[in-house]
Each structure stands twice: as structure tokens, then as C-alpha cells.
Amino acid sequence: MVTLNSVPLVTQPVQIFFIVLVIILFTPLLLNKLKIPHIIGMIVAGVVIGPYGFNILDNDSSFAIFGQVGLLYLMFLAGLEIDMYHLRLNMRKGLLFGLLTLLIPLVLGVLTSVWLLGLDWITSLLLGAMYASHTLISYPVVARFGITKAPAVLIAIVGTIIAVIGALLVLAATVNVRREGAFDLLAQAMLIGKMVVWCLVLLYAYPRVTRRFFKSHNDKVTQYVFVLAMVFLAAWTAQLIGLEPVLGAFFAGLLLNRYVPPASSLMGSIEFVGNALFIPYFLISVGMMINVRVIANSETLAVAGIMLAVAIVSKWLPAFIVCRINRLDYSSEGVMFGLTAAHTAVALAVVTLGYNLGMLDTRILNSTVLVILVTCALAPIITAANAPKLKLRLLAAEEEDGVIRQTRVNNTLITVANPASASPLVDLAVLMRNDRGRHSMFALHVRDENTNAAKNLARASLDMASKAAASADVGIETLERFDLNTVTGVLNVIEERDITEVILGMHRRVGVIDTFFGSKVEKLLRSTNKMILINRMFIPLNTVTRIVVWVPAHAQFETGFSRWVRGLARLTRQLGCRIIFCCNADIQPLIRGVIYRENYGIRCEFSTLETNDDYILLSNKILDDDLFVIIGARANSVSYTSSMAELPTFLQRYFAGNNLLIVYPEQFGEGPALTSFVDPLSTDIASMPSPLWRKMRNIWRRISVVRRSFMRRHNNRR
Question: What is the rounded CA–CA span in Å between residue 39 and residue 397?
């Protein structure tokens, strides 16, 4: 490999960082006009400014550190943005693709290396591991087009993990044979055993530690630093047991996926920092490693041509076979091939190790550099060419199924009484936001005094609401209103802004004679038929493990039935948890019908209740990490019964320490037509036999409930 000994033009840290920022800033602006993926521009810019270009910057330790961080960040984002529900649906396809994208490059690489390049079998196996591995360097392209949940992307991600793990196992085996002179089966078994133990430890520890940390620390900066620390801890421990750090970063993304909702402010911060700094730094560092001068070397061109043909064909064949088997279109095939075609970090590590061990010569090393250059340039182009077609096909399929309702309008009013309650209420509204139609949000503070203290309180409350929405990249309009009283102000805004739902904070009792909801909420319920949501949370929303919904009889006949089902389904999809509907058998098919028709893709279960009083029996089954949703009913409505009048009393008595969301649906109007559906993926938890682990979990939960009840009584006696 050709190396340069001259001193780079720029060596000062401030100047180096400025040049990198200029490249990150102007490369996308320039290449967007030329219709070229900006990823290629980042890599080409790295070639130009690197030691093998004009030698403006040196490929020193700073680029090595930031480049490695960017690669780990890229894999972490890939795991974090995966829709776990759709991942489970495409798991078998992904496993098939992973085996093919591992074995086909491995076999073709070994055969061509032996027959065409004249290498021995052990060295050919090492080179085959290089062909089998790949990097999701073009993942930002599919993220920008919003197709990360497409089956082709999910299949490619699963295949990437299998291919990288398999390539590392082959690499370890060949190195053992080279050093020891024979294949060490015990060493391979030890590596697999350590990998299994590592996965189990992280699978047990990460969710528990993350939930506990998020409960006690609500600051977004602290949560962001914690998430990054967990990612690099997983990467470091993976490296300690002999795996690639990228596998640890990806696995950490899968485990933290549940606690970082896609629409949350934390997710916005993670994506912003990664796409603005770390990932571009990685792409530039890849370009700085590429020596373009090897192209002019005639001794390398023939070898490089063979290796490049094997690298491209062996990654295209698995995508072609899997798409034909699963009847996916050509745009999906192009996206899968584009995501898995690039060879970067792992490939360079494999050939560098082989070169240091004397297994590979200089021409193989330089040819690998050329393969990295071409595949890194080719993969984003192919992905960018097929991603818009796949996006249009997905949109067309959704429109044919009636999923997208662009004419559907949601106007949410969030009443903020003080700065402390503003952020949680806005977070709830953001997670329930309708992203398939027009959705406007309004934050309202009503004051009935014209004093400076009242004005300052209104300004502080609305500023907090605006910051919470801005951190999640959601627009919100703040309204400060001076009116006779709070209820009158809310009612006037409902009429002026055509509000469809109102989100309130739970009233806190200030006296013995005070009611559970408070006089303001009760008056508001009597004065409007719009959907009202009353929220009380003791823990952050992203730490909720289950959503348990109690639905009264005849709730399907109310006007707002489908609206509240859609809202809870969107909340469940964002949180990634499961939702349990406790209702009678007549309502269950209609709830399934709404969820299926909208294609939300959530884990929903059903528990059959016979009477409206059965929600009292749920008091011992609702845990501290659950969100208990009560579907209420206004007086004289279809689903209202005499027992509903005692609802506030029972909530205060039996659910005083639980997280509550009380929903009063829109009523006394004309509702949309409902269709029923029997979803094979949803289950009736009352009739379905439970496996042993679920029975043990339920027993432990009941023990926990009894223990908490005993502690509460003991504290009250004291």
C-alpha cells in the first residue's frame, strides 16, 4: 500500500474541526442539486482531504476515535429505529437472508480465491469472511426517506447481524488454524458460549437499569448521556469477549428501543447529534482510509476486478433469491442490495489482520481498498435510486387499504395550569399524535386575574409547553386567555379552534369536601361533548410496561369510539408496550377492527369482563409500571349506567397510587361506521393457556401487590 510521509497542511485542532464542519455543511447542499447521495460526497471529501489525496488533514487518532464512534452510532440508530412488532413478523425472512448473505459470499470467495487467485484454503476462507461481512453505510438514506419499517429494510438489518457474526466466527477459526496449526473446536465453543452469556446478561440488566434510571431522572440531557453510556458499555463488553463492537451497539439499540419512543424529544436529540456530527465524521474517516493510487497500479487491477465482481455478485444474489421467494418487488431488492453491498470497517479489519499474519500480500490488501472504495460509492447510489420507488409503493398500498386519511383532522387542546404539569401533558399529546392526517396542537393557559403574578405564571407555563413540543420537533401554538373562569375560557377556545380532544391534568384534592375530579372538570364534562382525557402519571410515559384499558358495556355505540381506540393504539405503538382491553365479548371484534383497519401493528390482548363493576377486580392486577385507562361516559349517554356515578369514589379508594388516564369519548353525535375483525395476532388472555414463564411472572406480580398493600397499611398505622 502506498503511504505518504509528508506533513499535512492543517494540524491545529480548531482548523481541523472547522474544515470537517464545512464539509458536513456544504456537501449535502451541493450534492442535492446534483441528485447524488450526500453519503458519497462525505466519502469523496475524505479521500480529497486525506493523506492519500491532497494531504490537507492527517488520518490521526481524532478521526480514528470519531470514526469508530460514528460507526457505533450508526449501528445503534439502526437498532433503535427498528419497529419490534414488524421485526418479529419478518424474522424468518431475515434469518433466511442472513444465512444466504453469509454463505453465498463465503463460498464464492473461497472458490474464486483458490481457483483464480491461487491462494491456499485457509487464506481463502479468511478472504471469504471479508466478502461475507458488510456495513449498513447507506442506512441514513432509507432513514431520510422514512422507510426504516419496510420489510426489505428489516430483512436487511437481520441479515447484517447474522452475516457479521458468522464472518467473525470464520475469522476466529482461520486465525486459530494459522497460529495453532489446527482447528480448535474448544475455542470456537468458548466464543459462542461467551456470546450467549453476554446476550443474556444484557437482556436481563439493560431494561431494568434503564427503567429505574428514567424514573428518577427526567432531564433530557442526563437521559441522553445515559443512553450513550449504555451503548458504549455494550460495545466495549462485546469487544472484551471477542466480538465486534458494532454488534454491541446494535444490540444496545434493540434493548433501548422500548424506552425511546420514535416521537419523543430524546429520540429527536439522538438522531440530531448522530446525523449532524458522528455519522458524517465516520463517513469522512472512511474516505481518508482509501488510497486511490492503487487504481493506477496494473498489478492490482486484475485482482481487484475479480474481488470486486465477487463482492457485488455475492451480495446481489441473496437479495434476488429472498425477494423472489417472498414475492417482493424490484425496489425492495434494490434496497436490500444497497444496504448490504458496502464493505468498510469489518472488511478492512479482516484483511489487515491477514496481512499482519502473513496470509495476504500487498496486492490483496490494495485490492481490498479498491473494493471498499467502489462498494462504498455504489451502495448509497443503489439505495437512493430504489428508496423513492419503495416509498411510493408503500404509500400506494396504504392508500388502497384505506390506511391514510388525509382528510381526517385532529385539533388537540392541552390545558396547562402550571409549568410543572406542562411537559408531561405535552409528551402525552405528542405520543398520541396522528401522523396520518392533519393534526394541530394548542397549549392553553386561562387566567381570571390581570396581575403580574398571573401573567408570569401563564408565560412560564406556555414556555415550558412550547419547549417540550419543540424538543420533539412538533409544532404547537400557545394561547394565553383572560376570561371569566377556566371552564369558560376552555369552552370558548374549543369553539374557536374546532377542538376535537382536550387533555387535562388530574385535579388534586385540596379539602375533605372536594371531589375527585374537581368542580372545573365536572363542569367541563357537562358543557362539552368533545373527547376529554384526564391524566395522572407518577412515572415517565416511556417507562410504562403495559396499558390496561377498561371499557364499559355499549361503548361501541358512542360517537367517539374509534377516535379513542386510535389514540390509544398510537400511544401503544410509540411506547412499544402491549395493551390489554378489559371489556365484554361484543366490543372486542370492533376494537380489533379499528386497529386492523388502521394497520397500527401493536401487541393487543383482550380480557373478558361481564359487568361494569368488574374494574374493581383489576385493582390487585394493576402494577406500578402500568398505565390504567378508564373509558368513562357522560350522564344520559348510551354507555352510562348508575354504577358509573361511583367511578370517582372507586378510583380514589382502589387506584390512588396508580397511573391513570381517564377518557371521556366524544358523544351525542354521529359516529363512523365500524367493522369487526378477528386478528390472529391478538389474543384473549382469559381463554388462552399461559406458558410457565407467564404463570411465574403473574405469581411474582401478585406477591408484589400484596407486599405493597402491606407496606401501605403499615405506614398508615405508623
Answer: 29
Q: Three-state SS string across 487-499, please? A: HHHHHHHHHHHCC
The number of CA neighbours under 13 Å toward the Cβ of 690 is 11
Q: Cell numbers of 581, please? A: 382491553
Instruction: For residue range 453-474, list pLDDT tens digits in order.
Output: 888 999 999 999 999 898 888 8
- In this structure, which amino acid lies at residue 432? M
3-state secondary structure of 35: coil
The pTM of the full predicted model, rounded to 2 decimals, is 0.77
Dihedral sign of CA atoms 588, 594, 597, 599 in order: negative
Cell numbers linked to 687 = 381463554
Q: What is the pLDDT of residues 573-592, one digit of tens each?
A: 888 888 999 988 889 999 99
Q: From CA 274, how far away is CA 285, in angstroms rounded?
A: 15
| 3-state helix, strand and coil shares in percent for the chain, rounded to the nearest 5 | 65, 10, 30
Contact 70, 273 (CB under 8 A): no
Residues present in the chain in total:
718
Per-residue exposure over 331-343, b if at least 16 CB sit within 10 Å of its own CB, e if not? bbbbbbbbbbbbb
CA–CA gap between residue 381 and residue 339 (Å, rounded): 10
Which single residue is written with the C-alpha cell 401478585? 702
Listed in sequence order, the residues at least 6 apart from 347 whose beta carbon sits closer than 8 Å to its beta carbon are 130, 133, 134, 368, 371, 372
Place of cell 390581570: 450
| All cell numbers assigned to 325 | 421467494
Sign of CA dihedral 252, 255, 259, 260: positive
Contacts of 631 (CB under 8 A, 6+ apart): 549, 550, 551, 552, 555, 564, 639, 663, 665
Q: How far is CA 638 from the centre of its chain?
A: 40
Nearest alpha-carbon partner for 31 in 49, 47, 43: 43
pLDDT tens for each residue of 24-47: 888 888 877 776 767 778 888 888
d(CA 240, CA 681): 39
- Alpha-carbon separation of residue 52 from 1, 8, 212, 298 (angstroms): 11, 11, 49, 18
| Whole-number Å distance between alpha carbons of 690 and 695 | 6
Instruction: Determine the Cα–Cα distance for residues 609 and 603; give it in Å rounded to an integer.
Output: 20
For 495-537, how does the pLDDT look when each residue is reduced to its tens digit (9 = 90+)? 999 999 999 988 665 544 445 667 788 888 888 889 999 999 9
Among 672, 678, 688, smallest CA distance to 589 is for: 678
